[in-house]
Amino acid sequence: MLSFNLADKVAIVTGGNGGIGLGIAHGLAAGGATIVIAARDEEKSALAAQQLAPHNVGIMTIATDVADRSSVDAMVEVVLDAFGRIDILVNNAGINAGGSADVITDEEWDLVMGVNMTGAHYCSQAVYPAMKAKGGGKIINIGSMMSIFGRKSTPAYAASKGAIVQYTKALACDWADDNIQANAILPGWIDTDLTRRLRRAIPPLEEAVTQRTPAAKWGTPDDLAGLGLFLASPASDFITGAAIPADGGYSVQ
Ligand code: NDP
Description:
Blueprint: E1 10-14, H1 19-30, E2 34-39, H2 42-52, E3 59-63, H3 69-83, E4 88-91, H4 106-133, E5 137-142, H5 155-174, E6 180-187, H6 193-201, H7 204-212, H8 225-232, E7 243-246
Parallel strand pairs: 1-2, 1-4, 2-3, 4-5, 5-6, 6-7
The protein binds NADPH dihydro-nicotinamide-adenine-dinucleotide phosphate.
NADPH dihydro-nicotinamide-adenine-dinucleotide phosphate (NDP) binds near residues 15, 67, 94, 95 and 193.
């Protein structure tokens, strides 16, 4: 039976207090899921919770640094204490830092890999026992166009976003027997705080993205809500290990 119903499900969205994470959180909440926002900035998380309130679902915010294993473990413990289950994990928290491969510092490299890749691993590992105990779950990892393409001055970011796709395939294999599906979303160019900084730094980027994208526009966080809901729901139960672009066609032209 085809179902997008998430009514009794609990979803953790890392970095869910803004941008793409909040867009996906709206999609999951529209499906009826209880939403846990796991991000560092508590004020921003409180504002995001207000924006999600009209969905009339359970909402919890937990200050979390995904790059810190003890912070992740503590967050998962709080969620389990409150709700007794975790069904959906969206590994969305992500950052970019550093310049080209010849100048990026060790600190910048470790920071980006620590959040974008290792953080996703910490979170996946931490929720696994709870998902297994309830008979299954959904993990949605956020890649990028840089999971496919290279780009100047993004060595750590591109490496982390390439790695997250391979990690997704590995999770799909490791936990298939536990009825856990793992998939990646590869967003195109989406208007968020992250890309607003880039657009200011590289003025031609605005127009270049619009010109190359068949949809002829930048995406918005809402554009990720539908795919997020689909990959979190029983409707996608036979899809695992996939990396699906949501990019207005950017990657096909
Ligand atoms: P934003 O900067 O708007 O959001 C990133 C979120 O990650 C913030 O809410 C931030 O919250 C959170 N975050 C950062 N570091 C940590 C950390 N250590 N622990 C927990 N949370 C953290 O960016 P986007 O919405 O654009 O990006 C979301 C994801 O989408 C990222 O993985 C990004 O790489 C990816 N992406 C974005 C694209 C775009 O065009 N915008 C394109 C392709 C991929 P806080 O500061 O409160 O912790």
